[in-house]
C-alpha cells in the first residue's frame, strides 16, 4: 500500500519508518528544508560546534522513543546517570528525587491544568513499577541530528522511503469515507492508500476539512496553546564549576531554569571554550527581549548560582527562541486530545498533541506514531 506521512518531526519520522518496516511504500512530506521538526541540531561554524535548538531530556519510561532509536541505531547514545542536581543561589547543591522528575518541561501553574503533571506522575510511576527501575532522567550524548535524523535517512534509503522537502500539505482528500490522498499547497495531488497526518496542533487547521467530525479535532487548537522555550548556547572562556551534567536552579525567576554542561554530557573537549546551555521554560516575557538582553539575563543568572562564573567572558552566545515548543493544556480541557483513529478509513493522526499516556514530549510523539501505524496496519489487513 502507498502510505503518505505528513510532517517530518519525530512522530512523522517514526510513522514513516515503522510503516516501511512493515513492508509498505512510504512518501514522507515535510514543509521545511530539513527533517526533525522541534528536535534539531543547529551547526554553528563560528565556534565549529553543533548545538541543539534546545536541550532535550529523556525519562526512563520513554519506551516508544527507545524503539525509534533502535530502528535508527542510536540507542547507545542516550545515557541515564540516575541523578540531577538542584543548585541554590550562591552555589550550594542538593541531589534530590525532585531533580529526577523536574527535568521535564513546565508551564506557568496559574494557567495550565494540574491534571497534566498529575497524569505524568502516574505514567512515570506505572512505568517504574512495570520496569522495576526508579524514574530517572537521561540525556543524549550526541547532537539531535546525529541522534534522530542521520540513522533515519539511512533506514529510509534502505526501505525505499521517499522524502520530499518543502512539500506543504494543504489538505487530506477523502472519497466516500475513505482516504484518497493529499493535496499540496501548489495544487499537486498525491494519491495514497493510507495517510498519517503528523503535524503539530497549531498547523492542523484546514488539513482535515473533508474529515467528518473535524470540528471536534480542531477544538484542540483552542485548548492546547503554545508554550515558548528560550535556550541560550553559551560558549565561555572558562568552566563555571558545574558538579552535575544538568542542574535545576532553585528559586529562579521563571517557572523552571536549567543549565546543561556539554563537556560532561558529550565528553566535549574544552580546550577552545566551555559550552553551557541554559533553558528557560514558559519564557513568555524573555522571548520578547533582544538577544543581547537575553544573554545578559542568563549570564547574570549563572553568576548568581556559580561563583566560578563571576569573571567569565562570553566568547559566543547563540539564542534560540522557540515560541511554539510545547503546548499547555488549559484547565477543563481533559479529553480534548483526539484519538489517532479518525472517522475516515485509512487516515490516522499522530503528533505529541494527540491522545497518549504522556504530555507534550518526544515519547508522546513516538507513542502516537506507534498507535497511528497500528491503525493503518489494521486497515491494510482488512479485506476489501
Ligand atoms: C526547546 C524544546 C525543548 C524540549 N524539551 C523536551 C524534553 O526535554 N523532553 C521531551 O520529551 N520533549 C521535549 N520537547 C518537546 C518535543 O520536542 C516535542 O514534543 C516533539 O518533538 C514533537 O514531535 P512531533 O512530531 O509531534 O511534532 P514536530 O516536531 O513539530 O513535527 C511536525 C512536523 O510537521 C511539519 N509540518 C507542519 N505542517 C505541515 C504541512 N502542512 N505539510 C507538511 N509538513 C508540515 C513541521 O514542519 C514539522 O517538521 C521540547 C521541545 C522544544 C522545542
CATH architectural type: 3-Layer(bba) Sandwich
Please tell me the overall pLDDT: 92
N- to C-terminal distance: 13 Å
**What ligands are attached or bound here?**
flavin-adenine dinucleotide
Biggest pleated sheet: 7 strands, mixed
Q: In CATH's first tier, which class applies? A: Alpha Beta
- The CATH homologous superfamily corresponds to FAD/NAD(P)-binding domain
Derived from helix and strand composition plus strand pairing, the structural class reads alpha/beta
Indicate the radius of gyration in whole angstroms. Answer: 21 Å
* Strand element count: 18
Polypeptide structure, described:
This protein has helices spanning 10-21, 63-72, 97-101, 115-131, 144-159, 214-223, 262-266, 291-305, 362-381; strands at residues 2-6, 25-29, 58-59, 78-79, 85-87, 93-95, 137-140, 162-164, 169-175, 178-184, 189-191, 194-197, 224-236, 246-249, 257-261, 274-280, 314-329, 347-349. It is an alpha/beta fold and 384 residues long. The chain has a single domain (2-381), classed as 3-Layer(bba) Sandwich (FAD/NAD(P)-binding domain). The strands form 4 sheets. Strands 6-5-14-15-16-13-17 form a 7-stranded mixed β-sheet. Strands 8-2-1-12-18 form a 5-stranded parallel β-sheet, covered by helices on one side. The structure holds flavin-adenine dinucleotide. The site of flavin-adenine dinucleotide (FAD) has 37 residues, from helix 1, strand 13, strand 17 and helix 9. Residues 6-12, 29-32, 37-39, 53-54, 56-57, 105, 168-169, 198-200, 203, 229, 231, 322, 325-326, 351-352, 360-363, 365 line the site of flavin-adenine dinucleotide.
